[in-house]
Every structure is written in structure tokens, then in C-alpha cells.
From TrEMBL:
<feature type="region of interest" description="Disordered">
    <location>
        <begin position="1"/>
        <end position="20"/>
    </location>
</feature>
<dbReference type="InterPro" id="IPR036390">
    <property type="entry name" value="WH_DNA-bd_sf"/>
</dbReference>
<feature type="compositionally biased region" description="Low complexity">
    <location>
        <begin position="1"/>
        <end position="18"/>
    </location>
</feature>
<protein>
    <submittedName>
        <fullName>Putative ArsR family transcriptional regulator</fullName>
    </submittedName>
</protein>
<dbReference type="InterPro" id="IPR036388">
    <property type="entry name" value="WH-like_DNA-bd_sf"/>
</dbReference>
Length: 160
């Protein structure tokens, strides 16, 4: 009789896979611009509690964002998207390197990056699109405001 062997204490195991509830939500979420928890639960066939837990995890992963609808007390969700034009991954331009260096210090918005680095908004958007294509940055949202950061940035990196 074969026995399963467990990894040694402290040994690394394979990265956890996404939970089935998260997969279901990620399949359905792009079909509409915004979803509330109840409609999403009915559509994917899960309880609102399971949907809420999965959405919390997807929010932490940066794959989903909360959307506020003026005059509505419900919380809505949609896919997280930077809104940048998709480009092919490739070597970084001088502007992209400058923007990446800037983002290593702190997360920032397109407008503030442009102002701080004295670049045009179009130059910053182009640089961010290239950084995104190379999977070097991620974005988060404060309302409708998109905030860009390096993938490995944490609040502990904040230079004051």
C-alpha cells in the first residue's frame, strides 16, 4: 500500500490554485460592466456568502474592483482594468524606465507621474502600457482614479 509523503516542514509547495468560486466569478464578471453580489450569486449558482468571500480574494489579487454607483447603496463589482491601450511586451524605452523607477518609490497616478517627471500624459500612458505588457506594474482604484504601482510594491516601501 502506497503512502503519500508530505513536504518537509518549511518546504515550499506549489502555488495555490484559484478557488472554483473565484474561477466562476472571473468567467461571468466580464459579461457586464458591473455586478452586485446578489445578481452574481444567482448567475454563478453560489451563495452570497461564497460570492462575497471570493470577491474579497479577487479584490486582494487586484483582478476585480469595487464600483460605486451614485445614489445606490449596493456595492458593485467589475473587472480591474488599467484602461491603457494594449501593446506588445518588449524592451523598455527610456520613458518606461523612468516611470518604473518613479513607481518603485510609491504608487502614483498618470497625471502626477507626468507632472513629476515632466513628461506628457501620452508619454506616461505609453510607458505604463509597455510596463503593463511586460507584467512589471499593477493598478488599483480609488473610486474612478487609477493608481499604478510596481508588482512587488508594499506600503512598507513608502519613502517618507
Amino acid at each position: 500500500m502506497a503512502t503519500a509523503t508530505l513536504p518537509a516542514r518549511g518546504a515550499r509547495t506549489a502555488a495555490p490554485t484559484r478557488k472554483p468560486a473565484e474561477e466562476k466569478i472571473l468567467e461571468v464578471l466580464p459579461t457586464r460592466s458591473e455586478w452586485n453580489e446578489v445578481d452574481l450569486a444567482k448567475t454563478v449558482g453560489l451563495t452570497p456568502t461564497h460570492v462575497r468571500n471570493a470577491l474579497g480574494s479577487l479584490l486582494e489579487q487586484g483582478l476585480v474592483r469595487q464600483i460605486s454607483v451614485y445614489g445606490d447603496s449596493k456595492t458593485y463589482y467589475g473587472m480591474a482594468s488599467s484602461g491603457l491601450e494594449p501593446v506588445e511586451a518588449g524592451p523598455l524605452t527610456r520613458e518606461a524606465e523612468r516611470v518604473l523607477t518613479h513607481l518603485q518609490d510609491r504608487p502614483d497616478t498618470i497625471s502626477n507621474i507626468a507632472h513629476t517627471l515632466r513628461l506628457s500624459r501620452a508619454q506616461v500612458e505609453s510607458a505604463l502600457a509597455l510596463l503593463e505588457a511586460n507584467d512589471l506594474i499593477a493598478c488599483s482604484f480609488v473610486g474612478m482614479l487609477v493608481v499604478f504601482r510596481t508588482r512587488d510594491w508594499t506600503s512598507h516601501d513608502l519613502k517618507i
